[in-house]
Structures are given as structure tokens and as C-alpha cells.
Write a structure and sequence with these properties.
The complex is a heterodimer.
Chain A lengths: L2 E3 L8 E4 L2 E11 L7 E8 L5 E7 L3 E3 L3 E11 L4 E4 L6 E4 L1 H4 L11 E7 L2 E6 L3 E9 L13 E5 L4 E4 L8 E5 L4 E5 L3
Antiparallel strand pairs in A: 1-6, 2-3, 3-4, 4-5, 7-8, 7-10, 8-9, 10-11, 12-13, 12-15, 13-14, 15-16
Chain B lengths: L1 H10 L3 E2 L5 E2 L12 E3 L10 E4 L4 H9 L5 E8 L11 E10 L3 H16 L6 E7 H9 L8 H10 L14 H12 L7 E9 L8 E2 L5 E9 L2 E8 L4 H18 L8 H10 L3 E7 H8 L17
């Protein structure tokens, strides 16, 4: 893998530190009036999502991380691993619970997800921004309520629970924003 | 602001000068990188490597040695490898020299000029002067002259300063720079002009040393709202000592695998002929304009910041 000089630092660059892959979030060049210059960076651990601060001596080099984002189709869960397929090459990849994380509750078969690969192995999985799901359980709504005021919990076919307006009923199909976990609208089938 | 600077110096009998931006010699400071170019035109310098100046200091000292008296210059200068919120690879320095001044008296004049230029734009309380040692004692509770690398590492840990990989175990200066940039500088000059003065001898390559325990370099820096604005010296006039320091810088460059820089023989000859007792300072004009305009980054006050050149 390539190495990067601090002069190549910019947000989004993927680097290795302490054996983990990180993405640079922020990079600031600091230098006293005379003397050693430094790059102060904020970096996000791509395994844990945690953001930490690090400093490098300007001009030093850091090993790059072999991290790429690919669009993969979700196939199924075997109880332990989530299986994905590259729709172009038909190559199959498996992701563990640490990689799938919170995305698990939004994954429906055949959904295309952005999967971050580190050395070819899934590191994290991002569910599609919007998913369409069926409500499998919710309390009966109050007739005539057409606004979103209040709302009630609804369990979806993947097991995820979202707040929906009172008028939305069992068995209905809805659109959810997976980034916020919020109900967007009903979907006419 | 430029007009007010010129009025300020005209009223004090300080002469405006211009010196070349290109030179066959270059600054040796291992932490400064000069842009390099080649002259391909006619004359004896055909084919010579030339360096764009990082400050007009050396030719201005040659003028002083030739009897110019007090001089100032508003110069475009160039530094490779420096870009960021407070750095642009080319920028404007206001540099001036006062014959008969020491660094303390020059700090008074810097205060007068900065106050005049910032008046009505940036609220300022009384200026403050803090020795380098006092700044470390106040902000980090350590004495920069009597501290070991191990103690500096503990200090960094204690104050949450991330320690870069590859920090040296045998010299304290990079550690002092780390703590200065991360913990002290952001707290200097809060709503006031703060001067840091009397630097470690190892951090004052062009300044006089004042004997003492420890000896200190007669250098100062000016800060306002955490931004470093100016660097000044009580100028070293000893050609032999200056040559020794230049050679020391090139030795460091050799050890680090950096290119060595041709020593400015004209400057050394001028010092040997006699530099009048003087103090000089270089003030970052773009940064001053940035603070005067209430901005946070140089890009906001430059018509065409480096990314758009």
C-alpha cells in the first residue's frame, strides 16, 4: 500500500494507525514562528467510528489504508454472517456483526448497500438512505388523525421499530430514512 | 493599512528600501524551505540555481552594514511547504531594522505600530510581555531550560497533546515546539498584544545571546488572539559566530537528508565589515490584515489564495 506524506493530507484520506484504518476528518497545519511544523488531524476510526485527535511532524509519512467503498447487494443472513454479492462479478462476501452494526435492522434481501472494504473484507455496511418496509405490528390508529402529531411505535418486517403517525395501520408499506430512523411517508403499492 | 505603515515610518525617519527576491544563497534553517529556480539568461550567473527569499533579512543587513541607517521594507516572500489556515506559500512581510535599538525597545515600537493599525478594529487591552520560560511555567508548569524529553512527554500526556510518531529522544526543541503550538500559542494574546521574549539559544539562529544561566537568545514573538504576528531579534553582528551557526544548520540538514543551502557570503562579509548595533523585526502583514478584518483564515483576506493561483 502507498504511503502518504503529511503534505498529501486532506479530509477523506484513509490511513493506517496502530493497526486500524482511519479516515482523516480534519487537517490543520501548525508551525511556531521558527521551528518544527506539525499537522494536527482529527481522524475517524473506520472500525469503531470514534473520532480522535492525532499530530504528525510535517513532512513525515504515514501508511495508507486499503479502504474502498463498493455497492453490494444484500443476499441473506445465516444467523451469524450477512452475505452480500457484487452485482457485476457475482463475487460473494460475508460481513460479521461488527461490520454490519446498526445497518442490520434496515437490511432487506436484494437491497443494494454501500459496503466499505478494508483489504477486501467488509469493514462497515451502510444501509440505503431510504428503505421501503412493511409494518407488522402497531396499535390501531385514531381515525381522522391526518397529521404526524404524537405518533406511535411500529414494528417493521425486519424487526426495526420506528415512530409512525397515528393514522398508519398494520400491514401498510412505509418509507423510512435509515440515517435518522424516521418515518418519511406511506408507499402506495 | 499599507499607507498608514508608510506614514508611520516616514514620521520616524525610517527609509523604505527594496532588495532582491532572488538570491544565489538561501536561509539554512532546517525548518524553512526555499523555492528553487534556475536562471537561464545571459551574464555570469547563467545556469545558476537561485532561491526565492523567505524573508529580506540578509540583504537588508547588508544595507545596514553599508551605513543605510534605519530601514523598512514591505516584501513579498516565499516559503515552500507551508499552507493552511494561517499559512500561504507566498505572503507579505513588513520587515524593519532600528539602529541603536535592542529587542526590548523594538517591542515598544511594534506595539505602537500594531496598536495604531488595529485601533478601532480589534478591541485591545494593555499589552503583555512574557518570557518564553514564564509562558511554559504559566501554561504547563514546567521550566523549558531544565526539562528532560521524558518529562516533556509526561507533560504532553497530562495536557492531552497527542505525541507524534518519531519524536526525538535526544533533543527537547521539537517537544517544546509541540507543546508551544498545541497548548500555549492558542492561549496567547487573548484580546491583547502578547510578546514572548528571551528564547532558548537553540531557537534564535540570528539573534544575539545574552550570557546567563541559561544564556538566552534575544528574540521575541508577537501574538494576538492566538495568532503569531511577528518575530524580532536583537541582531547578531558577529560574523564568526554567524558562520558557525549557519554551518551548524547545514549539518542538521545533512543529518536529516535535507538539501544543504549555500551560505550567504555577502551577509557574512557585511557582518565582518561591521553591522551597527540594531534590532529587527518581521511582521506578517496578511495575518495582521486578517485580524483587523475580524477573519479566521488568510484565505478570507487574500484576493487569490494559493488554491486559486
Amino acid at each position: 500500500m502507498a504511503t502518504y506524506s503529511t503534505n498529501e493530507f486532506k479530509s477523506g484520506l484513509k490511513i493506517m494507525m496502530d493497526g486500524d484504518p482511519y479516515a482523516i476528518v480534519e487537517n490543520e497545519f501548525v508551525k511556531p514562528g521558527k521551528g518544527q511544523a506539525f499537522n494536527r488531524v482529527k481522524v475517524r476510526n473506520l472500525k469503531t467510528g470514534r473520532v480522535i485527535e492525532r499530530t504528525f511532524k510535517s513532512g513525515d509519512s504515514v501508511e495508507g489504508a486499503d479502504v474502498t467503498d463498493v455497492d453490494l447487494q444484500y443476499l441473506y443472513n445465516d444467523g451469524e454472517y450477512w452475505h452480500f454479492m457484487d452485482p457485476q462479478s457475482y463475487e460473494q462476501l460475508t460481513a460479521d456483526a461488527a461490520a454490519v452494526g446498526d445497518a442490520a435492522k434496515w437490511l432487506k434481501e436484494e437491497a443494494v448497500c454501500q459496503v466499505t472494504l478494508w483489504n477486501g473484507v467488509p469493514l462497515s455496511v451502510a444501509a440505503p438512505n431510504f428503505v421501503v418496509m412493511t409494518i407488522v405490528e402497531t396499535d390501531p390508529g385514531v381515525r381522522g388523525d391526518t397529521s404526524g402529531g404524537g405518533g406511535k411505535p411500529a414494528t417493521l418486517d425486519t424487526g426495526a421499530v420506528v415512530r409512525v403517525p397515528l393514522f398508519v395501520q398494520n400491514g401498510e408499506v412505509i418509507k423510512v430514512d435509515t440515517r435518522t430512523g424516521e418515518y418519511v411517508s406511506r408507499v402506495k403499492e | 493599512m499599507l499607507a498608514r505603515i508608510r506614514t508611520f515610518f516616514a514620521a520616524r525617519g525610517v527609509l523604505e528600501v527594496e532588495t532582491p527576491a532572488l538570491s544565489v544563497a538561501a536561509i539554512g534553517d532546517p525548518h524553512l524551505a526555499s523555492f528553487v529556480t534556475v536562471y537561464s539568461g545571459p551574464g555570469p550567473r547563467h545556469g545558476r540555481t537561485l532561491y526565492l527569499h523567505t524573508s529580506p533579512e540578509f540583504p537588508m543587513k547588508r544595507l545596514l552594514a553599508a551605513g543605510s541607517g534605519c530601514i523598512y521594507q514591505i516584501a513579498r516572500v516565499f516559503r515552500d511547504g507551508e499552507a493552511g489556515r494561517l499559512h500561504n506559500p507566498e505572503f507579505t512581510l513588513l520587515e524593519w531594522y532600528r539602529v541603536g535599538f535592542d529587542h526590548r525597545r523594538l517591542m515598544d515600537e511594534v506595539t505602537e505600530l500594531a496598536t495604531e493599525l488595529l485601533n478601532g478594529r480589534v478591541p485591545l487591552v494593555e499589552p503583555e510581555r512574557l518570557s518564553y520560560r514564564a509562558a511554559f511555567q504559566r501554561h504547563l508548569d514546567l521550566d523549558p531550560y531544565r526539562v528532560t524529553v521524558a518529562e516533556l512527554a509526561v507533560c504532553a500526556e497530562r495536557f492531552g497533546v497527542p505525541i507524534p510518531p518519531g519524536m526525538p529522544t535526544d533533543e527537547t526543541d521539537p517537544w517544546l515546539d509541540l507543546l508551544l503550538t498545541h497548548r500555549i500559542e492558542p492561549r496567547l494574546g487573548a484580546g491583547r498584544l502578547t510578546f514572548l521574549y528571551d528564547y532558548p539559544a537553540s531557537q534564535a539562529a540570528l539573534a544575539r545571546l545574552r550570557p546567563g544561566d541559561p544564556p538566552v537568545g534575544e528574540r521575541f514573538e508577537l501574538y494576538l488572539n492566538g495568532v503569531e504576528l511577528a518575530n524580532g531579534f536583537h541582531e547578531l553582528g558577529d560574523a564568526v559566530e554567524q558562520r558557525r551557526r549557519f554551518e551548524g544548520e547545514n549539518a542538521v540538514r545533512r543529518a536529516r537528508g535535507q538539501p544543504e543551502m549555500p551560505v550567504d557570503e555577502h551577509l557574512l562579509a557585511a557582518l565582518a565589515a561591521g553591522l551597527p548595533d540594531c534590532a529587527g523585526v518581521a511582521l506578517g502583514f496578511d495575518r495582521l490584515a486578517m485580524l483587523a478584518a475580524g477573519n479566521e483564515s488568510l484565505a478570507e483576506v487574500l484576493a487569490f489564495p494559493f488554491e486559486r493561483t
